[in-house]
Design a protein that fits this description.
By secondary structure, the protein is an alpha+beta fold. Helix content is 17%, strand content 27%. It has helices spanning 22-25, 31-34, 98-109, 123-128; strands at 4-7, 45-52, 55-63, 81-89, 114-118, 132-134, 148-150. It binds coenzyme A.
């Protein structure tokens, strides 16, 4: 498997940015996730396509600003935390190791950061990577918040 991460360029001077066009947003991907809302000028988001043999096999949305201190027993990551806002593997390519490989590529690309993700029904995936699961610090609130997974220290 030879995967490449391709960062999408934010157009200069545009007020709002749709990283994926309406036409391409849903091609094997869930277009609600990739064409829901525009990216604002001061956003710290990064969008990546994952390409194999000229085919887009996955997408990643990263966010450089993430708050995790309201979760229990979290390490003091400060600005080193880098959130995987969303990762999606193309419908036809799931279950073949691409998700795991993409996380490895992100780790190589951002060696000084600690990746974190709020799981949306994908606890099995994050756990399989050996990431630790954290719940909201207030047990009464925990069921209203997505579990947080944190990449282990290298
Ligand atoms: C979650 C997702 C990114 C995983 O990508 P993938 O390429 O299918 O995963 P991989 O083939 O690399 O699997 C890696 C491991 O995760 C496990 N896994 C993957 N998806 C899983 C799921 N939904 N539930 C439980 N385990 C899962 C696999 O069994 C595998 O475990 P193993 O290495 O111990 O055998 C992909 O299924 C997807 O795009 N889902 C829809 C979007 C989504 O839920 N994104 C995550 C939001 S937080």
């Amino acid at each position: 498997m030879r995967l490449t991460l391709v960062e999408l360029d934010r157009p200069v001077g545009e007020r709002f940015w749709f990283p994926f066009t309406y036409e391409e947003a849903g091609l094997g991907f869930n277009n609600l996730w990739w064409y829901g809302s525009p990216v604002y000028p001061h956003s710290k988001s990064v969008f990546l396509r994952v390409v194999e043999n000229n085919n887009e096999v996955a997408r990643v949305h990263l966010d450089n600003e993430v708050e995790i201190d309201h979760y229990a027993d979290v390490p003091p990551l400060g600005a080193t935390a880098l959130e995987i806002q969303f990762i999606e593997v193309h419908d036809d390519h799931r279950g073949c190791g691409i998700g795991r490989a993409v996380i490895g590529l992100l780790h190589n690309r951002y060696p000084d950061r600690r990746l974190v993700a709020f799981s949306e029904g994908a606890d099995g995936f994050w756990s399989s990577l050996g990431w630790r699961r954290h719940l909201h610090a207030d047990p009464e609130e925990a069921s209203f918040f997505r579990p947080l997974f944190i990449q282990p220290r290298a």
